């Protein structure tokens, strides 16, 4: 891989891993097509103890965003409160009162999915469609996140690379996770960590653990451990349905090429058709997996069906 040649590397990887037409010209789900009824039923049978883990960060003003690309932390405002009720300001009969609130936030400011309309490759969206005919000022007219509202539930697999290869469970910023690192983690974790068709793979780097301890710093867009660009073939060949990490941007930062920005996104989303989750909180789940040695679970991670959105907040639930 030539660090000075991102254009050539992206083009070669995209051509090698492109899934355009694989599920028909009208497809809007990409690799989520790998999750069928049988796989969802199998995932449900993985629940043995009934233990549940939320894999979401909090949605509040104390989040990681600092305004880059106009991404801010959520602003939560109360419309009606208990004070209004106590003072009789609400005008309701027979003493009933209530509270209401509103939130304003970018859809990708905390734990979220990247939808298939989020990234383009040379003006082409998923399945080879012209980007300008997919996402307009009215939103994603073809692959809006609402099309995946019922699709992202199945067998989840945790690959705790931070615990397997890092120091005190954390990989340093700039650590590029290769296919060999993923294989070594699977081997260390055992049979329940096998990865295959239709799985939703969660990769823990430990960066979120560090950010919680030391402060957000440059978590949103700064240096981070993450998947190497060279894992594009693995992401394609394993036929996984989706992948998520505990980092802001999924892939290693700084990126591995000179003068490049998120090249793995450029291959994974518009060419492979892969859904990418970012800023997932995998720590409690990872501790449980390390304790009982079981790294597979039922994962329910439905996006909000926001019509035309290219991404969505999510509260993923892992059930063991």
UniProtKB/TrEMBL annotation:
Gene3D superfamilies listed in its UniProt record: Putative cyclase (3.50.30.50)
| One GO biological process term | L-tryptophan catabolic process to kynurenine
What GO MF terms are annotated? arylformamidase activity
Pfam families membership:
Cyclase
Q: So which residues are the signal peptide here? A: none
What's the protein name?
Answer: Cyclase family protein
Organism taxonomic ancestry: Bacteria, Bacillati, Actinomycetota, Actinomycetes, Streptosporangiales
């Amino acid at each position: 891989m030539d660090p000075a040649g991102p254009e050539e590397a992206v083009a070669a990887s995209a051509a090698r891993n492109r899934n355009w037409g694989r599920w028909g010209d009208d497809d809007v789900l990409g690799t989520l097509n790998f999750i069928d009824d049988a796989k969802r039923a199998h995932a449900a049978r993985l629940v043995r103890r009934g233990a549940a883990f939320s894999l979401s960060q909090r949605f509040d003003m104390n989040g990681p965003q600092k305004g880059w690309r106009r991404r801010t932390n959520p602003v939560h405002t109360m419309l009606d409160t208990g004070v209004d009720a106590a003072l009789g300001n609400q005008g309701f009969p027979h003493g009933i009162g209530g509270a209401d609130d509103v939130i304003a936030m970018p859809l990708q400011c905390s734990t979220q999915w990247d939808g298939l309309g989020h990234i383009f490759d040379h003006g082409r969206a998923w399945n080879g469609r012209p980007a300008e005919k997919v996402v307009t000022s009215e939103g994603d007219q073809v692959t809006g996140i609402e099309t995946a509202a019922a699709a992202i539930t199945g067998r989840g697999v945790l690959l705790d690379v931070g615990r397997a290869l890092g120091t005190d469970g954390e990989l340093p910023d700039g650590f590029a996770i290769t296919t060999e690192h993923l294989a070594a983690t699977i081997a260390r974790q055992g049979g329940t960590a096998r990865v295959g068709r239709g799985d939703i793979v969660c990769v823990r780097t430990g960066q979120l653990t560090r950010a919680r301890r030391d402060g957000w710093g440059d978590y949103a867009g700064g240096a981070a451990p993450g998947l190497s660009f060279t894992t594009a073939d693995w992401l394609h060949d394993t036929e996984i349905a989706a992948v998520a990490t505990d980092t802001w941007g999924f892939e290693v930062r700084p990126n591995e090429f000179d003068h490049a920005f998120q090249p793995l996104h450029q291959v994974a989303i518009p060419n492979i058709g892969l859904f990418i989750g970012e800023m997932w909180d995998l720590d409690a789940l990872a501790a449980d997996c390390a304790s009982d040695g079981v790294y597979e679970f039922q994962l329910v991670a439905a996006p909000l069906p926001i019509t035309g959105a290219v991404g969505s907040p999510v509260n993923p639930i892992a059930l063991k």
